[in-house]
Write a structure and sequence with these properties.
5-stranded parallel β-sheet, 6-stranded parallel β-sheet, 483 residues, FAD/NAD(P)-binding domain, Rossmann fold, alpha/beta, 17 helices, binds NADP nicotinamide-adenine-dinucleotide phosphate
Length: 483
């Protein structure tokens, strides 16, 4: 597509919803760049656009050609209800003061400083793009991988499309007792027909069809009561396996003082005890949950063959925090695949201050420390915790802070004069830097193509995973091959 054509399209998109602010249209809007199009970015955009004090123009920047962040590439494909929150994001994107700019890489196509010079405020909702490591011998052996990579791969994230996962052998071990661990365990155990009805990436579907894995062992370092799972995710597991969930009754035996545990913990324990009462059949696909084990070494001749675990005792400190303490006992479990699902980790971004210890951008209620017009929301602000909805409150706090700063003068608008057409200036600047700019209309073309391909096979969508394929559709390029 020529630059002229794309500029025309980028500036002439249809607007489908009424403005939600009550501001007179003559007032120059506050211009805010939101960097990142995942849940926290959309909730920040929504908070900015919903308030009625100040007219705001939101420009959302995204490195990929597609929006929705972890809702597209993190939420498991067999969780369509969770994914349906994207409908809310589409409504936000339809606001007349909202623009989407995809396929723009901050630091390559434009710099952070250039954004700060062009917008009254820049709000980073960039998530936590890396994963935590175990720091043990053998972690880098072939067959030992990060759940972050595996999740990106089965969800069709372009960065992970070229990864190859060898699903051979009988047993996979997942390290970590959180919801990501359960996601990958479910995907590895699910019957093929079930996955084939989802929007899982086609390359993952083919590889999983050939998988010989029958047991996925999920291992937590602390006790069953300290698992980070949510009850709904724990409770649904048997639906996704051939023969249920194996829990050792001794690991979930009732302990004194349990009545004082938080209700979600008691609910989790009840579910786990239910599993402990049901036998699982060897040879059929099942999930095993094991606790009080820390991996200390991954071994194998050229690839993963076994994991050595330290058996842990639990110690409670004066504040009630439960720690895992190595008893010195060792246990070796054969496995051909090890997935570490021990949490995401933020990475430093374009010269912004960064707290290495916690993997977040240091901030005060969302305002980035030491900056004049920069803000953060979501996981890069508070760390990788909580469910999708948690980001709504987090983003609202940041937007409240932004307007408080505006009100007390600590956030000062750029002086631009009322005739300055910010939208036009920005689009023409972006097209100079990134001729393959994907706007909301380009994303709509991708969305329609994917949904149409899915409808033909009874799936919500068939994801396009290569950036070039996505751009072909978004920019209506000659090589586009509708599927
Ligand atoms: P998470 O909830 O923080 O769980 C990480 C797990 O890894 C914990 O069990 C933790 O144990 C363990 N761990 C950390 N370091 C370890 C180490 N060195 N060795 C062994 N174990 C270690 O992280 P997550 O599973 O990545 O999930 C991130 C967030 O996304 C969570 O808030 C989660 O609820 C959310 N999420 C939600 C859904 C859903 O709603 N369906 C799906 C996926 C993710 P300790 O507790 O002992 O530290």
């Amino acid at each position: 597509m020529s630059q002229a054509t794309s500029r025309h399209r980028a500036t002439a998109e249809p607007r489908t919803s009424e403005p939600r602010t009550s501001e007179p249209r003559t007032a120059a809007p506050l211009t805010v760049a939101v960097i990142g199009s995942g849940p926290s970015g959309f909730y920040a955009a929504s908070s900015l656009l919903e308030q009625s004090e100040v007219p705001v123009q939101v420009h959302m920047y995204e490195r990929l050609a597609t929006p929705w962040g972890l809702v597209r590439s993190g939420v498991a494909p067999d969780h369509p209800k969770i994914k349906s929150v994207s409908g809310v994001y589409s409504e936000i994107a339809a606001h007349e003061n909202f623009r989407f700019f995809g396929n723009v890489h901050i630091g390559r196509d434009v710099t952070r400083e250039e954004l700060v010079a062009r917008y009254d405020a820049v709000l980073y909702a960039i998530g936590t793009q890396s994963d935590r490591r175990l720091g043990i011998p053998g972690e880098d052996l072939p067959g030992s991988v990060s759940a972050v990579d595996f999740v990106g791969w089965y969800n069709g994230h372009p960065d992970y499309a070229a990864h190859a996962f060898d699903l051979v052998g009988d047993r996979a071990i997942v390290i970590g007792a959180g919801n990501v661990a359960l996601d990958v365990a479910r995907i590895l155990c699910s019957p093929h027909e079930r996955l084939a009805r989802t929007d899982i990436a086609d390359h993952a579907l083919s590889t999983l069809r050939e998988s010989t894995i029958t047991e996925v062992m999920v291992v937590g370092r602390r006790g069953a009561a300290q698992g980070a799972f949510t009850t709904a995710e724990l409770r649904e597991l048997p639906e996704f396996t051939e023969s249920g969930v194996d829990v050792d009754p001794a690991e979930v035996a009732p302990q004194p003082g349990e009545d004082a545990l938080p209700r979600p913990t008691r609910r989790n324990l009840a579910v786990l005890r239910g599993y402990a009462e049901q036998p699982t059949a060897a040879g059929q696909r099942h999930i095993t949950l094991r606790f009080q084990r820390t991996p200390v070494e991954i071994r194998g001749d050229g690839r993963v063959e076994e994991v050595v675990f330290a058996r842990n005792a639990l110690e409670v400190d004066e504040q009630g925090w439960v720690s895992a303490v190595d008893t010195g006992e060792r246990e070796t479990v054969p496995a051909s695949l090890v997935l570490r699902a021990v949490g995401y980790r933020g990475v430093a971004f374009s010269g912004l201050p960064f707290d290495e210890r916690h993997g977040v951008i240091p901030n005060d209620r969302g305002r980035v420390e030491g900056t004049e017009r920069e803000y953060v929301a979501g996981w890069i602000k508070r760390g990788p915790t909580g469910i999708i909805g948690t980001n709504r409150k987090c983003a609202a706090e940041t937007v409240t802070r932004l307007f408080a700063d505006l009100a007390d003068g600590s956030l000062r608008r750029h002086d631009r004069g009322v005739t300055f057409d910010h939208d036009v200036e920005i689009v023409s600047w972006l097209l100079e830097r990134q001729p393959h700019l994907v706007t909301e209309s380009g994303w709509q073309l991708i969305d329609s193509a994917e949904r149409a391909a899915g409808a033909a096979s009874g799936r919500p969508r068939v994801k396009l995973v290569l950036t070039d394929e996505l751009l072909d559709i978004a920019l209506k390029r000659q090589s586009a091959t509708p599927r």
